[in-house]
């Protein structure tokens, strides 16, 4: 402590926030600039305040300005009123037009509805008239058809009766003629001689011929007598299929028979079966081949192929659909190749039929 009993003065120590450069007083030039700026701001503020219009209602300028603004607003209001009045007038005109159009449209709709109802009524009456006319025409047509059918039926009955009478008359004449010819044949003692069998003509069928004797050369019904005179073959009587009259003698009438019973030597048959499968994918058809055996010597292979019956796959055929011959690859045919080339040919039949499994 000092001599006078006071503590020594305190000088605070510097901190990290203190500037590195120590504080110093501003210069006089800086102070004068600040004072000048303040004075300029005061002058500008006073000038601006003096230039602002006054809002005092007692000020004549203010009243004039307010009156002018009122005039402008009044004119603007009057203009808006006039525009609103004009718009209302246009609205009333448009409303009147809409009311008039609505009334006109209602009248037109009512008129249209009346016209539609009238048209529908006329159409309905026309339909009823047409239907009644159609029913009358249909009834007349049905009557005409019935009458036509009745006349046609009567005509058919008449023709059938006439035809029956003609058939009966013809049969009676034929019967009388047959009896007369039979009597003539019995008187002349006509009979068959030189009955001979020949080659097979088709499947299970053989040709026979015979000569009719005691036929006078002057007799003018020699062929008819031949066709009416039966011959017994295999215990069964047959009349000729056709006759030949070699004019020039009493024994030159030749009869021909084709017997299709009890002729096993003429019965060819199909020996084996080959399935060639479907003709083509999706064709719906299958091809089958058979080989034909026991063709009689001298027989026409095409005729026997086309007439020899066969059954397979639950189907029956009276003969092959396609016939052809080709060389048979067998030991016997190879051995006889140089002996007789014809013997190497076999007869084949082909069938093409629908098959669901080929679709």
Describe the structure concisely for a colleague.
With 359 residues, this protein is of the alpha+beta class.
Describe the structure.
- By secondary structure, this protein is an alpha+beta fold.
- The chain has helices at 28-51, 60-188, 222-228, 301-307, 331-335, and strands at residues 191-202, 205-213, 231-233, 236-238, 242-245, 253-259, 269-278, 285-293, 310-312, 315-317, 322-327, 345-354.
- It is elongated, with a radius of gyration of 69 Å.
Described by the principal axes of the CA atoms, the overall outline is elongated
* Unreliable residue stretches: 331-344
The average pLDDT value, as a whole number, equals: 84
Structural class comes to alpha+beta
> In whole angstroms, how far apart are the ends?
135 Å
Topology:
Layout: H1 28-51, H2 60-188, E1 191-202, E2 205-213, H3 222-228, E3 231-233, E4 236-238, E5 242-245, E6 253-259, E7 269-278, E8 285-293, H4 301-307, E9 310-312, E10 315-317, E11 322-327, H5 331-335, E12 345-354
Antiparallel strand pairs: 1-2, 2-6, 3-4, 5-6, 7-8, 8-12, 9-10, 11-12
Salient structural properties:
single chain, 359 residues, four-stranded antiparallel β-sheet, 5 helices, 12 strands
């Amino acid at each position: 402590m000092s001599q006078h009993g006071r503590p020594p003065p305190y000088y605070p120590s510097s901190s990290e926030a203190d500037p590195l450069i120590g504080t110093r007083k501003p210069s006089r030039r800086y102070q004068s600039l600040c004072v000048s700026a303040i004075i300029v701001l005061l002058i500008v503020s006073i000038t601006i305040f003096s230039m602002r219009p006054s809002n005092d209602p007692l000020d004549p300028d203010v009243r004039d300005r307010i009156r002018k603004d009122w005039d402008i607003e009044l004119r603007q209001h009057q203009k808006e009123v006039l525009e609103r009045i004009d718009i209302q007038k246009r609205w009333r005109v448009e409303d009147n037009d809409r009311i008039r159009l609505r009334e006109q449209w209602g009248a037109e709709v009512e008129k249209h509805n009346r016209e539609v109802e009238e048209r529908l009524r006329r159409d309905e009456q026309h339909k009823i008239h047409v239907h009644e006319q159609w029913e009358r025409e249909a009834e007349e047509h049905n009557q005409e058809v019935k009458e036509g059918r009745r006349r046609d039926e009567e005509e058919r009955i008449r023709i059938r009766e006439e035809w029956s009478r003609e058939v009966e008359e013809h049969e009676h004449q034929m019967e009388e003629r047959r009896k007369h010819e039979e009597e003539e044949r019995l008187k002349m003692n006509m009979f068959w001689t030189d009955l001979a069998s020949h080659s097979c003509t088709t499947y299970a069928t053989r040709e026979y011929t015979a000569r009719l004797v005691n036929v006078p050369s002057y007799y003018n019904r020699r062929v008819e007598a031949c066709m009416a005179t039966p011959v017994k073959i295999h215990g069964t009587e047959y009349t000729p299929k056709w006759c030949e009259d070699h004019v020039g003698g009493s024994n030159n009438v030749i009869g021909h028979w084709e017997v299709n019973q009890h002729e096993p030597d003429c019965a060819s048959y199909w020996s084996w079966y080959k399935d060639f499968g479907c003709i083509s994918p999706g064709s719906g058809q299958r091809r089958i081949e058979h080989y034909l055996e026991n063709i009689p010597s001298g027989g026409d292979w095409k005729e026997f192929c086309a007439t020899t019956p066969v059954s397979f796959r639950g189907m029956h055929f009276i003969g092959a659909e396609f016939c052809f011959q080709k060389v048979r690859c067998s030991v016997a045919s190879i051995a006889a190749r140089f002996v007789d080339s014809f013997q190497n040919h076999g007869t084949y039949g082909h069938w093409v039929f629908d098959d669901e499994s080929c679709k």
